[in-house]
Amino acid sequence: MKSELLSTSGLSALCAVFLLWLVASVAHAGQAAIVVDATTGRVLGQVNADEQNYPASLTKMMTLYLTFRELKAGRLTLEDNLPVSRWASDREPSKLGLRPGQTISVEDCVLAMVTKSANDAATVAAESIGGSEAGFADMMNAQAALLGMAGTHFDNASGLPDPRNVSTARDLLTLAMALYRDFPQYAHYFSATEFTFQGRVVHGHNHLMDRYDGMDGLKTGYTAASGFNLASTAVRDGHRLFAVVLGGRTAAKRDRLMASLLDAGFEQSEAAAALAAAGQPATGVAHRVLAALSPIANAEADPAPAAAPRHAKRHGKTSTARRSSHRASHHAVKLADRKSKHAAKGGDD
Predict the structure, then answer these.
(1) What is the pLDDT of residues 151-164, one digit of tens each?
(2) Number of independent structural domains in the chain
(3) What is d(CA 201, CA 196) in angstroms, rounded to the nearest whole number?
(4) What is the CATH number of the domain that holds 187?
(5) Which of 36, 91, 226, 286 is within CB 3.0–4.6 Å of 120 for a Cys-Cys bond?
């Protein structure tokens, strides 16, 4: 088992080599990944985790966080019916197809955001909680600051394309973990893969949840600007991991990388537990974690679109926790110079 693990110095050297290789290789804008042991808070593997990218519908995790906060405070109930405005009904797909003047329950809004990633439902919740979507965005940013999401700025409730709607893999993982920590009574919603709305079954986008043993949430995301994003959590033998993948070139490649990250993460956690039982400290990240991350710079590296979106400006201060290796990888992934016309449309995979 010890041969499966890296010494601290060996880990540092391998990370440095890996990052230099990543910088030199053909990599796409927006590609990042991180996996964390929820029990210990230990980062098991990361690539470009502090790079600012487009979160797409992973934005809705914050919309859900604020919705759950209202429910917990008693300012909303799951049975409350929320009005649908013209602005909400006009949101681009993915959507439920809500009509102005219609109402939708808070619980259906939650399920629509989790499964179909419905942009109209997200806007309904935002307007009801914040008075307007702009007002709700202010609330989102205030909560992001409280959670320590220093690389994040939200400009809408859904994640529809906007150069000012940006986050990082690390921040989105922080948000995912906060949802389960702060609102365990609502965490079961993230395991929903479908729900019935007005007599029809609405199917979800998170197909990996049906295939990966132990996965019970969270959220998919896609726009042309962001690529295919995924936040996931899985539990095995009472041990929970959280992971985020950003910038997948296809949904299938994104899902394969997520599965590899979680597999390697569970293996590393088991190895660390065995070392602790033997009275020895965990010595670092298993090399399989880095091997699992490598598709970001090879299998994931399809030819980049000619007109990708400009990298958004950073908001807030740079995290002091970033290592020099992160700074070295900063130049490996940048959004290209022109905003894609295709990014005007948004939705989920």
Answers:
(1) 999 999 999 999 99
(2) 1
(3) 4
(4) 3.40.710.10
(5) 91
